[in-house]
Design goal:
Elements lengths: L3 H11 L20 H21 L9 H13 L18 H23 L7 H15 L3 H13 L3 E3 L4 E4 L5 H7 L4 E3 L9 E2 L5 H14 L17
Parallel strand pairs: 3-4
Antiparallel strand pairs: 1-2, 2-3
Helix pairs in contact: 2-3, 3-4, 7-8
Protein name: Helicase domain-containing protein
Organism: mine drainage metagenome
InterPro entries: P-loop_NTPase (IPR027417)
């Protein structure tokens, strides 16, 4: 793609929760003997990278991005064009329209630089942020706590759990509210890189939330014959 923003979006798709690889190699392919590819690479992609290296952030092409490519390609095929085999970041060989487009990009980058200078968060200390994150993580608990909670709760309400990962659960004898919360799922996995046909459980999964709500409701239920976790003693 000639659009620098598209490249960043594609890079971002591999840097997300559940990515199994610690490092993902990104390669840009372009035709070395194709003047259009070379022009787009030099004038757009490399300029985008230069701005990002200078500011530490990306600044999109201002206005309609299609206008930029149309102007560059038109200049490339114009018999009177002064474009050489490689357009430089200084815009040598570009006509007035192309130069104006790219100069607007420079002005947008400069405005962003000034904005970040004015609103720079110099008062934030990395050590303080790290302490807050650690405190939140300690309060939430480790990922394995979700697994223990689901297994213990399903068994406490009369369900059957077998297997390691994925877990196979049977809720035939469980209360209707728990069966509805499971949504018919019989295989549950806590491995985010597992098979796509398995239901992968994380803390924010609706089933986990519904189980937690059921436990809270059952704990407040005063009926002595309630089948909920109110009468359940943890094996530990």
């Amino acid at each position: 793609s000639w659009n620098p923003t598209r490249h960043e979006q594609r890079d971002g798709r591999v840097d997300r929760f559940g990515q199994p690889s610690a490092e993902v190699r990104v390669v840009t392919y372009y035709g070395a003997d194709n003047r259009i590819d070379s022009l787009v690479l030099d004038v757009l992609l490399r300029k985008h990278q230069a701005i990002r290296s200078r500011l530490g952030i990306s600044v999109p092409v201002p206005g309609d991005p299609n206008t930029v490519v149309q102007a560059l390609v038109s200049g490339l095929f114009d018999p009177g064009s002064r474009l050489g085999d490689e357009a430089q970041l200084a815009f040598e060989g570009l006509d007035d329209e192309e130069r104006q487009i790219l100069e607007r990009w420079d002005r947008a980058a400069e405005r962003e630089r000034r904005s970040r200078t004015v609103f720079a968060q110099e008062g934030i200390r990395a050590a303080e942020v790290d302490r807050e994150i650690r405190a939140v993580n300690d309060a939430v608990g480790p990922p394995d706590s979700v697994r223990r909670f689901v297994i213990d709760t399903v068994r406490a309400v009369g369900g059957v759990v077998t297997g390691d990962d994925p877990l196979r659960i049977s809720l035939t004898e469980a209360p209707e509210a728990v069966r509805d919360a499971a949504g018919g799922a019989v295989e549950l996995s806590f491995d985010l890189t597992g098979a796509v046909d398995q239901r992968r459980l994380i803390r924010s999964d609706p089933f986990v939330g519904d189980l937690a709500a059921y436990v809270m409701d059952a704990a407040l239920d005063r009926l002595p014959d309630s089948p909920g976790p109110a009468s359940w003693s943890h094996p530990d």
